[in-house]
């Protein structure tokens, strides 16, 4: 039981951060104060703090202590190209992916009007639900060219498509055109996402291109609005 005490301390502090009892931007008490509060050794406290850091609840700052991070929202760069796996690394085991649809289809007239692929071109159709802190908060709907991106599998989609493209296929993902809108949830949104009490979703539609300017992906990411903050850096010329 003593070996698991640091887990119980981690769970207690994490729960207090999630409920807002411990506010984002504040410093946690020192290791000494925490050890006295929980009546345990500083080594046990260090293990709990390490776990909190790995799970994205706190950031340890040299000479200052542990600052509490804002876990209620996830920062999505507007101008950058970042995979969900890369974002999830900052959140530790708080984030999971579930592949709901993985099919090979041909571009029909309806799809042809939405995406810049050829009529009857073979594409991968993928639906993935992203879970954060136990709630389903993103629905990613992807269409990816089979000609440009061969060999996709459900297992790859559950891990990282971008990582597969860059590391396995040796291709360079170069740029994307993005459109951000606010829409009413669809029946699919309400079926797959935890939207009780929410009347809108934030939709990011992206056309993603390789280094030779070939479009390989059209994605529509549908976000529950309370969990996400879209950020960018702007400079006046």
Main traits of this protein?
single chain; 237 residues; alpha+beta; Arc Repressor Mutant, subunit A; Chorismate lyase; two-stranded antiparallel ribbon; 10 strands; DNA binding
SSE blueprint:
Layout: H1 5-19, H2 31-38, H3 42-54, E1 58-61, E2 65-68, E3 74-77, H4 84-89, E4 95-106, H5 109-112, E5 122-132, E6 135-145, H6 154-159, H7 161-168, E7 173-183, H8 187-192, E8 201-210, E9 215-223, E10 228-231
Parallel strand pairs: 3-10
Antiparallel strand pairs: 1-2, 4-5, 5-6, 6-9, 7-8, 8-9
Helix pairs in contact: 1-3, 2-3
Q: Could you characterize what this model shows?
A:
One of its GO terms (biological process) is negative regulation of DNA-templated transcription. Keywords: DNA-binding, Repressor, Transcription, Transcription regulation. GO terms for molecular function: DNA binding; DNA-binding transcription factor activity. The chain has 237 residues and is an alpha+beta fold. It has helices spanning 5-19, 31-38, 42-54, 84-89, 109-112, 154-159, 161-168, 187-192, and strands spanning 58-61, 65-68, 74-77, 95-106, 122-132, 135-145, 173-183, 201-210, 215-223, 228-231. Strands 4-5-6-9-8-7 form a six-stranded antiparallel beta sheet. A two-stranded antiparallel ribbon has the order 1-2. A hairpin with a 3-residue loop joins strand 1 (58-61) and strand 2. The N and C termini lie far apart (61 Å). The model has no long low-confidence stretch (mean pLDDT 88).
């Amino acid at each position: 039981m003593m070996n698991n005490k640091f887990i119980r301390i981690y769970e207690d502090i994490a729960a207090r951060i999630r409920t807002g009892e411990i506010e984002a931007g504040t410093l946690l008490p020192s290791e000494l104060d925490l050890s006295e509060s929980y009546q345990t050794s500083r080594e046990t406290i260090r293990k709990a703090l390490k776990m909190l850091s790995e799970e994205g609840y706190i950031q340890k700052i040299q000479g200052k202590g542990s600052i509490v991070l804002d876990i209620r929202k996830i920062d999505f760069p507007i101008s950058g190209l970042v995979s969900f796996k890369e974002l999830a690394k900052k959140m530790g085991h708080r984030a999971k992916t579930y592949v709901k649809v993985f099919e090979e289809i041909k571009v029909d007239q309806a799809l042809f009007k939405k995406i810049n692929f050829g009529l009857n071109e073979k594409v991968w159709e993928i639906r993935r639900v992203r879970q954060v802190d136990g709630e389903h908060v993103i629905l990613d709907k992807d269409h990816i060219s089979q000609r440009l991106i061969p060999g996709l599998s459900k297992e790859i989609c559950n891990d990282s498509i971008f990582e597969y493209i860059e590391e396995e296929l040796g291709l360079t993902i170069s740029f994307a055109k993005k459109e951000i809108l606010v829409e009413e949830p669809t029946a699919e949104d309400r079926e797959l996402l935890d939207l009780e009490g929410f009347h809108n979703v934030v939709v990011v539609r992206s056309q993603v291109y390789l280094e030779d300017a070939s479009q390989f992906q059209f994605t529509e990411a549908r976000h529950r609005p309370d969990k996400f903050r879209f950020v960018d850096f702007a400079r006046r010329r």
